Amino acid sequence: MWVEVFVTAFTLQLLALPGEKGQLVIAGLATTYNPYLVVAGAATAFGGWTVLEILLGEALRGALPVAYLDAATAGLFVLFAVWILYDGSAMDGTSAEPNPGEAATTDGGTSPVSNWEGYLSSFSAMAVAEFGDKTQLITISLAATYGANPAIWVGEMAAIVPVSTLTAVTFARTTQYLNMTLIRRVAAAMFLVFAGDIASTYLLGISVLPF
């Protein structure tokens, strides 16, 4: 069960990350601050939020029948698919916004900033950016299904930390080479597959996914 929950949490969080606003915040802050401290601040905020979300999901677990929770989870997966595609089309249709790091630069380049400033800026920004995001809904849904299983926290952190680190270190250099529209569409399609698998389990008695 632990491995199953870990893989599920890891996979769902990984699919939710493309185009997620928290990753854009990390990318912006990393242009001014030490990228590893930006990731540390973001991970601290995300880890704290995840604990609260797991406790909320655990409280909901005993309050509703399992079938209702599964139906709600399937509905959330469909919502995530639409959400990802909508966010992608909105970002594709807008012009580039000012870089969050511009306020800390001068004609001579980036001004020196303290390590704590980078950490605290990332922590505070992510604490706000994560509120009401689809990553939170995923955590609550998982906890409502599996209970307050530590594998949820470990699986989600195993996805968010490496991806955030990669974003912070390489995002500015690789954006022009990535087809973000394709990535969002693949992620949206996977969420629809997860929703379809839940529906298939109840309607046909068959699960098409290995986890």
TrEMBL record:
Keywords: Membrane, Transmembrane, Transmembrane helix
Membrane topology: Multi-pass membrane protein
Domain of life: Archaea
Transmembrane segments: 38-56, 68-86, 151-174, 186-209
Cellular compartments per GO CC: membrane
Molecular function as annotated in GO: metal ion transmembrane transporter activity
Pfam families named among the record's database cross-references: GDT1 (PF01169)
Presence of the UniProt keyword Signal in the record: no
Subcellular location per the Swiss-Prot or TrEMBL entry: Membrane
Family named by the database record: Belongs to the GDT1 family.
Full protein name: TMEM165/GDT1 family protein
Organism: Natronomonas aquatica
